[in-house]
């Protein structure tokens, strides 16, 4: 089989390779025996929950080494690439254990969704991954301006660094004088909006949802503060919207 993972000078990196890949098993075993002899007997304890062992020796490790591990994982293995390229256009697939997402863009004619237990690796996979994105009625739920700007910056990082990559963001407007809510200029921008649950046989329950009501021009300001560029913006049905890019 072709597609042997890249050779690394750092033996600990070699030891950390995907042992599931046939071409790397021998190298992994050798490196592990040579460099980890002091821990050779740290095998799963029958009396210890396997989840706890995996948390310590798999999940926590990937969280710690994520940036370095990601820097060594950039070239798709040929057989995997061939499999992805053989899928019919428009089909939907999953990459379970996607790591930094290196396979997500191999075949752009399919819709491939990635998931991974390592939050640090998934964060790396999200960057530069999308040609477009939408975020509708989300940013206004963050309770400080800095958090709203940070959220927009995170959205922009998801876009590929190309001129035609776009994000569409919608938020509730303060200026809703014609709506049943009655908010308008001069009203408090930070508010709790009740949601009443009525279920047969159960007492009525009311939940208070936080909203920041954006005033005219504020969303564009937040996009620019987050490092983005406004392409187009406007108002529609009690919402401000913006189309922006990196």
Automatic annotation (TrEMBL):
<dbReference type="GO" id="GO:0030488">
    <property type="term" value="P:tRNA methylation"/>
</dbReference>
<feature type="compositionally biased region" description="Basic and acidic residues">
    <location>
        <begin position="39"/>
        <end position="48"/>
    </location>
</feature>
<dbReference type="InterPro" id="IPR029063">
    <property type="entry name" value="SAM-dependent_MTases_sf"/>
</dbReference>
<dbReference type="GO" id="GO:0000049">
    <property type="term" value="F:tRNA binding"/>
</dbReference>
<feature type="compositionally biased region" description="Polar residues">
    <location>
        <begin position="1"/>
        <end position="11"/>
    </location>
</feature>
<protein>
    <recommendedName>
        <fullName>Methyltransferase type 11 domain-containing protein</fullName>
    </recommendedName>
</protein>
<dbReference type="InterPro" id="IPR051422">
    <property type="entry name" value="AlkB_tRNA_MeTrf/Diox"/>
</dbReference>
<feature type="compositionally biased region" description="Low complexity">
    <location>
        <begin position="24"/>
        <end position="38"/>
    </location>
</feature>
<dbReference type="GO" id="GO:0005737">
    <property type="term" value="C:cytoplasm"/>
</dbReference>
<dbReference type="GO" id="GO:0002098">
    <property type="term" value="P:tRNA wobble uridine modification"/>
</dbReference>
<feature type="region of interest" description="Disordered">
    <location>
        <begin position="1"/>
        <end position="52"/>
    </location>
</feature>
<keyword id="KW-0489">Methyltransferase</keyword>
<dbReference type="GO" id="GO:0005634">
    <property type="term" value="C:nucleus"/>
</dbReference>
<dbReference type="GO" id="GO:0106335">
    <property type="term" value="F:tRNA (5-carboxymethyluridine(34)-5-O)-methyltransferase activity"/>
</dbReference>
<keyword id="KW-0808">Transferase</keyword>
């Amino acid at each position: 089989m072709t597609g042997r993972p890249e050779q690394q000078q750092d033996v600990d990196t070699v030891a950390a390779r995907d042992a599931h890949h046939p071409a790397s098993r021998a190298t992994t075993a050798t490196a592990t025996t040579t460099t980890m002899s002091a821990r050779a007997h740290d095998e799963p304890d029958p009396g210890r929950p396997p989840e706890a062992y995996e948390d310590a020796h798999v999940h926590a490790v990937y969280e710690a080494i994520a940036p370095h591990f990601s820097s060594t994982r950039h070239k798709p293995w040929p057989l995997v690439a061939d499999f992805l390229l053989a899928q019919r256009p428009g089909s939907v697939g999953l990459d379970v254990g996607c790591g930094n997402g290196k396979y997500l863009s191999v075949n752009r004619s399919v819709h491939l969704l990635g998931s991974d237990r390592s939050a640090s690796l998934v964060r790396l996979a999200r960057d530069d991954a999308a040609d477009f994105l939408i975020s509708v009625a989300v940013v206004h739920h963050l309770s400080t301006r800095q958090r709203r700007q940070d959220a927009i910056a995170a959205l922009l990082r998801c876009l590929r660094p190309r001129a035609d990559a776009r994000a569409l963001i919608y938020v509730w407007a303060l200026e809703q004088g014609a709506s049943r809510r009655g908010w308008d200029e001069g009203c408090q921008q930070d508010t709790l909006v009740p949601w009443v649950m009525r279920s047969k046989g159960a007492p009525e329950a009311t939940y208070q949802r936080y909203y920041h009501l954006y005033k005219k021009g504020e969303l564009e300001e937040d996009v620019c503060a987050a490092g983005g560029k406004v392409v187009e913006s406007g108002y529609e049905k009690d919402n401000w919207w913006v189309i922006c890019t990196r």
